[in-house]
Write a structure and sequence with these properties.
By secondary structure, the protein is mostly helical. The chain contains 8 helices and 3 strands, in the order αααααβββααα. The chain has a 3-stranded antiparallel beta sheet.
Length: 208
């Protein structure tokens, strides 16, 4: 059984004007599809079972080739990314997640500012993350390329990512060119906190 690309859970233009339809089409149908195709090829050429859960591969990525790391990470990261965006998002977190964000970062606005700083400070391509560490605490981090906090190569800030900002140029360049800061500001306008809350609850259930 090979990995497949799930359909985008909304229309390409659903996030406009914040993220344009052409970017979404190219990003999902070409870039993400390429990660899926190349992951399947890398696993097949290595004689590795493709019935493994993607999360299990990511958790133990140090055991795999660079091709599996890059493309498995690309598949995992983008699958999370699409699900946390919405054309009609819940604009603020509630409940336990909100409480933990305020306890850890001081406020929702401060969390956004801290993640923005990580996103802008990531040299070249990569991601900025909100994650749940294995002790249940919230943390933020950035990773290069298609790495993520779940990978066992991340020693200092490891855990389950629940929110990720894609700062590869293909995520924003058609509309924002070199204005990464404007793109990150726009990201918050289409982030669905309801989806992040579900990711948070799922992460907590896995570390108990």
């Amino acid at each position: 059984m090979k990995y497949t690309l799930a359909p985008l859970p909304y229309k390409f233009d659903a996030l406009e004007p914040h993220i344009d339809a052409k970017t979404m089409e190219i990003h999902h149908d070409r870039h993400h599809q390429a990660y899926v195709d190349n992951l399947n090829k890398a696993l097949e050429s290595s004689g590795i079972s493709q019935e493994l859960e993607l999360e299990d591969i990511i958790k133990n990525i140090s055991k795999y080739s660079a091709a599996v790391r890059n493309n498995g990470g690309g598949h995992y990261n983008h699958s999370l990314f699409w699900e946390i965006l919405s054309g009609s998002p819940k604009v603020e977190p509630e409940g336990k997640l909100k409480e933990e964000i305020i306890k850890s970062f001081g406020s929702i606005d401060q969390l956004k500012a801290d993640i923005k700083n990580l996103a802008l400070g990531q040299f070249g391509s990569g991601w900025a993350w909100l994650l749940v560490k294995h002790n249940g605490a919230l943390a933020i981090s950035s990773t290069p390329n298609q790495d993520n906090p779940l990978m066992d190569i991340n020693i200092t800030t490891q855990g389950y990512p629940i929110l990720g900002v894609d700062v590869w140029e293909h995520a924003y360049y058609l509309n924002y060119q070199n204005k990464r800061a404007d793109y990150v500001d726009a990201f918050w306008k289409v982030l669905d906190w309801e989806a992040v809350e579900k990711n948070y609850e799922s992460a907590l259930s896995k570390i108990k």
